[in-house]
Amino acid sequence: MTARDGLRKGWAALPVALRAVVAGILIALVAANVWPALLLALGVPLASILEMLFLAAYVWWARGGGMPRGTSTARSIAFRSRKLSSRQWLWGLLAALSFGVTIHAAIVLLFRFTPYPIDAFRRGYDFSFIPSPSLRWIAVVVSAASAGICEETGFRGYMQQPIEERHGVPVAILVSACVFMLVHLGKGWATAGMVPIVFGAGILLGLLAWSSRSLVPGMVGHVAMDIGLFAYWWTGIAGTFALRPISETGVDPPFLIACAVFAASLCVVLGSMAQLRRVRG
Prior knowledge:
The chain is mainly α. It has 13 helices and no strands. The longest helix is centred in the middle third of the chain and has 35 residues. The chain is globular, with a radius of gyration of 20 Å.
């Protein structure tokens, strides 16, 4: 027996959930960290072009293309490769965009109960070295695309899908959401109040991947959410949150609007996913 055969047998002997967690983390995080390296080394214009080419190749490989051919089918299944009907696109995009609104409304509500820790949120997201506003916006969009595509492929695809088959949907979504949350705890913005929001985002994205049987709606929602996070909360190029906690201002109209937006958008997300499950049936 060769060393390679021994590694394959040892890997196959591991529990399905453990293999899925390890594979999902590697598939998500190794690929997602290509963009920061390119950005710092090459600058926005060239780095953006190379990152788009990399993401195209990454998706092609993750959905079953290229080598090794023996894993092509498994990769296609893990990626949830399937065509969506027009009705699935409609409900999937509605769920995706409403998901982004829900998460941002939740963050607004969080910082109406507690002061916005701007220093913690801006730590590690300084785009001041980028010379122009237009290039900063390009960096924001590419950063969001990199995180959304790679993380959905890893967490909701390669991690969640195998666990769904082995242990069922609730366990799979819970595991992927927990790991998704734990991976982000090292970020400066991962304050105590943000932890349940990140966990809730993982739950909703897991439900969306399962409901649509595709990673594409989740990628769209994740990218839309991250564009707002990068542009507003993390870098400030789209403005800075200035509202004070309601302990200082009282229950004011902006707080009531945020509550209404959060409740309405969450209902749209859940309703759209219910429609996705009905349509797929």
